[in-house]
Specification:
Layout (H helix, E strand, L loop, with lengths): L34 E2 H8 L3 H9 L6 E2 L5 E3 L1 H15 L4 H25 L3
Antiparallel strand pairs: 1-3, 2-3
Length: 120
């Protein structure tokens, strides 16, 4: 398994502006599809098969590299962490998906309220 960055990735970062995701893998930009499935499994301490299952179930679907390898963003890793935490607390995968969808809807509605309050 390689740790080559996906197209458009800035590469491993260190120093100012580096957003730490955990362990030895860090890249700037929370929406940059950079991390391989093996790296994410290592950071989260879960089997690669679990991440593949979450992708197959359309709970967290990373983008794909030109070689069709999964590439995760920092935002997707945070979402995976949330799903894993929910399931460890006894929530089913269907329940975790619903929690995530509802949180997204709340965030969208809060953004809409803020936009309307700003007069936009």
């Amino acid at each position: 398994m390689t740790s080559e960055p996906a197209e458009g990735a800035t590469g491993p970062a260190s120093g100012a502006g580096a957003a730490e995701t955990g362990g030895k893998y860090a890249v700037t930009g929370s929406d940059v599809p950079f991390y391989t499935i093996g790296q994410v499994a290592e950071v989260l301490g879960v089997p690669v098969a679990q991440l593949r299952r979450l992708d197959d179930l359309e709970i967290v679907q990373p983008s794909r590299s030109q070689g069709n390898q999964r590439r995760y963003t920092q935002n997707e890793i945070a979402l995976l962490r949330e799903v894993i935490d929910l399931t460890q607390e006894g929530v089913s995968l269907a329940g975790a998906r619903m929690v995530i969808e509802l949180r997204r809807r709340v965030e969208d509605l809060e953004a809409e309220v803020a936009r309307l309050r700003a007069g936009g």
